[in-house]
Amino acid sequence: MTIILHELVGADPARPFSPHCWKAVMALAHKGLPFERSNVCFTKVPEVEGGVSKTVPVIRDGDQVVSDSFMIAAYLEETYPDRPSLFGGEGGQAMARFVESWTNTVLHGVMRDIAMKGIHDALAPVDQAYFRSSREARVGKTLEQMVEGREAALAALPGTLMPVRVTLKSQPWIGGSSPLFADYIVFGALQWVRLTSNARLLEADDPVKDWFERCLDLYDGLGRSVPQSA
User: One short Pfam family name for this protein (predicted)?
Assistant: First the structure.
């Protein structure tokens, strides 16, 4: 049975940009599970699967409905143990929780000012109004003020990624010898900005750049199938 993945899109349904939805996409591909992508705009999220969640991604796997990217990964790991592991064991799952916490609280904080205006501009008008009001209330800044912080955010990004850079100097993936869900968590953040901004995030000689390019090539170029923002 094909799994249905509800994921966030803007005015162009061919350009899904949510970092959390990309984590779910990569997790499903990692498991080698067939899935169908269902497009959802911001203002339609409350209608997904009867309002099961305030956010996407949400998956339906037969009678099972699961929300939240980490919970989706944990569900896939438990339900399909014969498929390639997303965590490499209980300890790996616990460590992935740390990577997610760092990404959500530190890395996303830097990425926000780079991405927010681009996200707004990619939405349909009804979603633009919702996005502006909700994000400005959450952050305490206007979108224009976030744009003013874009250069400072770009300057701060290399230092913010230092833990990832140091890790990748001694191993090819955050997960070790092969990619795991921890890789997809950080990948989702960089993919988010790649698809909403034309900013050059990483220098050519940066180990994080090499890692990100390899992530884009995984699963027949799944991440690269959506071109970078012009």
Answer: GST_C_7
Per-residue pLDDT of the chain (230 residues; tens, 9 = 90+): 899 999 999 999 999 999 999 999 999 999 999 999 999 999 999 999 999 999 999 999 999 999 999 999 999 999 999 999 999 999 999 999 999 999 999 999 999 999 999 999 999 999 999 999 999 999 999 999 998 999 999 999 999 999 999 999 999 999 999 999 999 999 999 999 999 999 999 999 999 999 999 999 999 999 999 999 87
Give the Cβ contact number of residue 203 at 10 Å.
9
Q: For the whole model, what pTM was predicted?
A: 0.97
For the beta carbon of residue 206, count every other beta carbon within 10 angstroms: 16
Question: CA dist 21 to 15, 39, 131, 167, Å?
Answer: 12, 11, 17, 25
Length of the chain: 230
What domains does the chain contain, in order, with CATH numbers?
3-79 (3.40.30.10), 90-119+146-220 (1.20.1050.10)
**Residue 94 CA to chain centroid, in angstroms?**
19
> Distance between CA atoms of 227 and 75, rounded to whole angstroms?
30
